[in-house]
Write a structure and sequence with these properties.
This protein has seven helices and 14 strands. It has helices at residues 38-45, 84-95, 159-172, 210-217, 228-247, 268-272, 302-322, and strands spanning 5-6, 12-13, 31-35, 55-58, 64-70, 73-79, 102-112, 121-132, 149-151, 155-156, 181-190, 221-225, 282-293, 298-299. Helix 2 crosses helix 5 (228-247) and helix 3 crosses helix 7. The structure holds 1-O-phosphono-alpha-D-ribofuranose (R1P). 1-O-phosphono-alpha-D-ribofuranose (R1P) binds next to strand 7.
């Protein structure tokens, strides 16, 4: 990003572009699929309508956003890379580019901790965070009173969106795809692909019994990956903000759609006021494709990935457009990249 940024608290360019995703209002839609890789983003976007021509923005920090319409409804896919910190950039920066509600479905890959074949799709009801305990002395492990890993309480998906993801995936699953779709499970989102997921490397990670411990302490645990917890967590926090705001002297917030400034310099009002209404919601759910079966050590083939990503992409897009957002809680179409 070479443009001048203003406000160290929440940096933006003069034309309201956020610092890491590079987006400005009108370039990201209220309904979003988030994925880890640009290639998966392109698979999702391959289902978009041809009119209007999908808008694409690749940021210098590796985020890719493609926005268009699917079955006539404005949608975006955002590729964010890996891990909780990138989910944090994504949710917070997109939130400040959008008026109204946000519906977010993560379409990601995962490791399966239950006895299901690779190619299964898990729709997790809830997620826990698994974090390396930095107060544990990994180098010596002598007399440490700390545990090497911390497991958070679970946080839940949005109930309606979660059910719709399951329903829409089931509707598009090809008959020849024999691996199942599984619901009613809990995901574990780890802060490392290696240590906090029980993988053995050359480092003294003290994680030989981590998976056994997780399975014994987290009911319905089924998958390991690295993003879902933070997505569900931020969505749940945002939903909770309304009550707090009602009780405090909060600064004024925009309550209706804000006209995006796409070419003219922003007004002082547009810069100083959050671009989201205080009564909005963020609703999140996930579909996790089992690429690795941790017990059998099977790994999915590239050919299987292509087929699996193709139909799951359609399933999550269907789930987004099947889930209602009241018109009054949609970002303005005028001036947006999805305007017809
Ligand atoms: C690790 O290989 C990555 O794959 C999984 C993990 O959560 C992590 O991001 O998800 P994605 O395929 O969505 O990136």
């Amino acid at each position: 990003m070479k443009d001048t940024l203003t406000d160290a608290n929440f940096p933006r360019t003069a034309d309201l572009r956020v610092y890491h995703l590079g987006l400005r209002p009108g370039e990201v839609a209220n309904r979003i699929v988030t994925v880890g890789s640009p290639s998966r983003a392109r698979t999702v976007a391959s289902h978009f309508d041809t009119t209007p021509k999908p808008f694409e923005l690749a940021s210098e920090r590796g985020f890719l956003t493609i926005t268009g319409r699917y079955k006539g409804v404005p949608v975006s896919v955002v590729s964010i890379g890996m891990g909780h910190p990138n989910v944090d950039f994504f949710v917070r920066e997109v939130r400040e580019c959008l008026s109204g509600d946000m519906l977010i479905i993560r379409l990601g890959s995962c490791g399966g901790l239950i006895d299901v074949p690779v190619g299964s799709v898990v729709v997790p009801t809830s997620s826990v965070a698994v974090e390396r305990n930095l107060d544990f002395d990994f180098a010596s492990d002598v007399g440490s009173t700390e545990k090497p890993y911390r497991i958070s309480k679970p946080v839940s998906a949005d109930t309606e969106l979660h059910s719709q993801v399951h329903k829409s995936l089931a509707a598009v699953k090809p008959q020849h795809w024999t691996a199942p779709i599984i619901v009613g499970t809990t995901n574990a989102s780890a802060d490392s692909f290696y240590s906090s997921q029980g993988r053995q490397t050359s480092f003294p990670d003290q994680n030989e019994y981590l998976i056994d411990h997780l399975q014994a302490s987290v009911p319905q645990l089924a998958t390991f990956e690295m993003e879902t917890f933070w997505l569900y967590h931020l969505a749940a926090c945002w939903s909770g903000r309304k009550g707090k705001l009602d009780k405090t002297d909060a600064p004024p917030l925009a309550t209706g759609p804000v006209q995006p400034t796409t070419s003219d310099p922003p007004t002082a009002h547009a810069v100083s006021n959050p671009l989201a209404g205080h009564d909005t919601v963020i609703r999140a759910a996930a579909a996790q494709m089992v690429f690795a079966a941790r017990a059998s050590r099977d790994f999915i083939t590239p050919e299987q990935v292509s087929v699996l990503e193709e139909w799951t992409a359609k399933g999550v897009l269907d789930a987004l457009v099947e889930t209602d957002i009241p018109t009054t809680r949609m970002h303005a179409e005028e001036g947006s990249v999805w305007a017809l």
